[in-house]
Amino acid sequence: MALVNTKKMFEQAAKNGYAIGAFNVNNMEIVQGITEACKEENAPVILQVSKGARAYANHTYLVKLVEAAVAECPEIPIALHLDHGPDFETCKACIDGGFTSVMIDGSHLSFEENVALTKKVVEYAHAHNPYVTVEGELGTLAGIEDDVKVESGHESYTRPEEVIEFVERTGVDSLAIAIGTSHGAYKFTPEQCTRNADGVLVPPPLRFDILKAVAEKLGDFPIVLHGSSSVPQEYVKMVNEFGGKMPNAIGVPEEQLREAAKLSVCKINIDSDLRLAMTGTIRKFYAEHPDKFDPREYLKPARANIKEIVRHKLINVLGCAGKADECK
After folding, report:
1. Are 46 and 81 in contact (CB under 8 A)?
2. Is 83 a catalytic residue?
3. Residues of the domain holding 160
4. Within-domain flag for 248
5. CATH of the domain at 14
6. Secondary structure of the chain in the HEC alphabet?
7. Tens-digit pLDDT profile for residues 280-327
8. Is position 259 within any domain?
9. pTM of the full predicted structure?
10. What are the residues facing 177 on neighbouring strands?
């Protein structure tokens, strides 16, 4: 099947209590690992591209990689999404250039400026043939993701009293909210965490009170969580063991993400987990095989580990394994 937008995916996710995985991509092996797992688990998927990924890999190369994935995995719905579109021009280029969904991130603007910018993108995207879905954002997340940089302490939670007005005035198809997730692999400082009986740092809980208040106001309207990587500690350990320096890299507990998926969250963004798997695997490979030089030899196990992380997320976190057919 051809690339799809996110409309049908989100309708089914909201109705049936699961979330669609939105995985950031920037090279062939990441695209392959994600889509092979989704094909084997019969899961719908969103492949998303940031401004930084477009600068790194080139818009055309990325679109063609995703089109190749569609050809190889015709059984599953795949959407191509712009993550954190910074302005109208970038969104327009992606809409005109084959993307089926875009995010316009006006969360750093005033409410009125955010509404105006988001509405402008929505009007252009919805007039496009085929129809392109649009994600907006209210509230800001701490952390760093490409050009999105918000210092800890300067983030702001979504205000539930604003969401209805924002959705109605902009016409967006989904809304990203801020409930305590954070961009990057360093989502929480040790000072923000507590230690469990085993001495492991446990991050503060997400603000489910805000999520529930937003969901109560919006009903089945699709809600999105950014900054939702769990930062698997086995790969943090692997990176550090084989020459890396990533102290106190802490992510969002997976059980909290699964709970969010049951509470109207239709899309959960995941990026750092896959990058960690790739980096840790490559570091380990070269420590064990210092004489090797062929990229295929280290990228193959990296791709395999990405695939297994995605498979785990589909089944145990997102709950969307086996849901591809109903999302077509």
Report:
1. yes
2. yes
3. 7-230+241-274+307-327
4. yes
5. 3.20.20.70
6. CCCCCCHHHHHHHHHHCCCEEEEECCCHHHHHHHHHHHHHHCCCEEEEEEHHHHHHHCHHHHHHHHHHHHHHCCCCCEEEEEEEECCHHHHHHHHHCCCCEEEECCCCCCHHHHHHHHHHHHHHHHHCCCCCEEEEEECECEEEECCEEECCCCCECCCHHHHHHHHHHHCCCEEEECCCCECCCCCCCHHHCEECCCCCEECCCCCHHHHHHHHHHHCCCCEEECCCCCCCHHHHHHHHHCCCCCCCCCCCCHHHHHHHHCCCEEEEEECHHHHHHHHHHHHHHHHHCCCCCCHHHHHHHHHHHHHHHHHHHHHHHHCCCCCCHHHC
7. 999 999 999 999 999 999 999 999 999 999 999 999 999 999 999 999
8. yes
9. 0.93
10. 138, 225
Q: Find tokens 């809304």 and name the residue.
A: 175
As a whole number of angstroms, the distance between CA 88 and CA 121 comes to 6
CB 109 within 8 A of CB 117: yes
| AA letter at 77 | P
Half-sphere exposure of 203 (CA within 13 A, CB side): 25
Residue 254 to residue 79: CA distance in whole angstroms? 24
> Could you identify the residue written with the tokens 């699964």?
258
146: tokens are 């490409």
Amino acid at 256: Q
45 located within any domain: yes
Spatial distance between the Cα atoms of 278 and 295, rounded to a whole number of angstroms: 12
Number of domain units in the chain: 1
Catalytic residue among 83, 105, 146, 273: 83
Spatial CA neighbour of 230 closest among 150, 309, 324: 309
Confidence label for 227 from pLDDT (cuts 50, 70 and 90): confident
Per the domain annotation, does 204 fall within a domain?
yes
Beta carbons of 22 and 269 less than 8 angstroms apart:
yes
